Amino acid sequence: MSAHIKFLDLNKQIKPFNKALIKNVISVIKSKKFILKDEVLKFEKSFSLFSKIKYCAGVSSGTSALFLALKALNIQSGDEVIIPANTFIATAEAVVSTGAKVCLCDVEEETYNISCNKILKLINDKTKAIIVVNLYGNPFDVKSLKKIINNKKIKIIEDSAQSHGARINNNQIGKFSDVSCFSFYPGKNLGAFGDAGAVLSNNKYIIDKVKLLRDHGRSKKYDHKVIGYNARMDDIQACVLNTKLKYLSKWNAKRHELAKIYNMKLKNLSQVTTPVIKENYYHVFHLYVIRVKHRNKLQNFLKKHGIDTGIHYPISLSKISALSANRQACKKKDCCFNHCSVSEKFSKEILSLPIYPELKHKEINYIVNKIKIFYEKKN
Ligand SMILES: *Cc1c(COP(=O)(O)O)cnc(C)c1O
Known about the structure:
By secondary structure, the chain is of the alpha/beta class. It contains 14 helices and 15 strands. A seven-stranded mixed sheet has the order 1-9-8-5-4-2-3, with helices on both faces. Strands 7-6-13 form a three-stranded antiparallel sheet, with no helix packed on it. The chain has a three-stranded antiparallel sheet with strand order 12-14-15, covered by helices on one side. A hairpin with a 2-residue loop joins β10 (218-220) and β11 (223-224). α2 (18-31) runs antiparallel to α9 and α4 packs across α8. It is globular and about 70 Å long. The two termini are 26 Å apart. The structure holds pyridoxal-5'-phosphate. Pyridoxal-5'-phosphate is lined by residues 61-63, 87-88, 90-91, 133, 159, 161-162, 183, 185, 195, 197.
């Protein structure tokens, strides 16, 4: 095989329904209903049903979903919000944008998700919320966290940007938290043809507030109740999402199956740590992330053999320069930014291999064989 295995291949994804997609998008263009109209309302209903959460507000991106969720929960300057140290910067940006302080918590070795035990030490009078990220598609156990913190005043927000459809014991993500935020960035498990996001909650008050804030603080034209934002979902994106949503369960199942194949084939390599799939956890593998020895050399070796890979994320948030103001704001020695050793170590070892529903078994074989050859040469 003269291979080029892309990290993500959206052409392959849309091929089976390309014609329907174009037809649907053209009908939105013909209707001239472009923002918060029929397609958006339809998507909010369908995605609510899919996620088994009562209320949904379509917004302009995953980042604005997180920001508006925090605003709806009244998070503001003077508050602290705990987030994991290994996540995409957007989780932190949303907190900083409200004026609140980012408090970093290290991640757990097995799941890569925020460490429940370490959260406890970070809670103080100013802690108003915790954002847990269902990282790489791996659902985080919110129910256990709630038991551990045992404080109803602290709100729990799920950053579900990578985990549409993930569940634990048949409980979909978002069920036990106050609010769950999704991104439909084109490369996510469910992706638009541009930016889009959604906020979901079983609490109607929260979603009504988000709906007010996303649209200039108004409920009717020119009746502005509060100062809001422009963070609306548009109908062309909603139309793409409506067309794709019916495939999402099948795609997730395929991702899960491919991850199991990778796990099985990589199991005997001592230099590679494969992701743990816990019993009763439905991990939807937005990313298939392994930890490896000689990460950078392996990545270059794979690149030379036509295999694209990624790193999620190469710099722990504890080392990100954009957050230096938050770092200095905490007391030096016991600053939470100084206690993220697992995230910092992992950032040098993690490697994301290609995973998407259209990836072929023979492509996985090719990738695994190249990894084996790399380590044979090393010995
Ligand atoms: C993609 C992503 C976001 C941001 O979503 P956008 O739609 O790009 O704004 C937030 N958090 C995580 C974990 C993500 O992967």
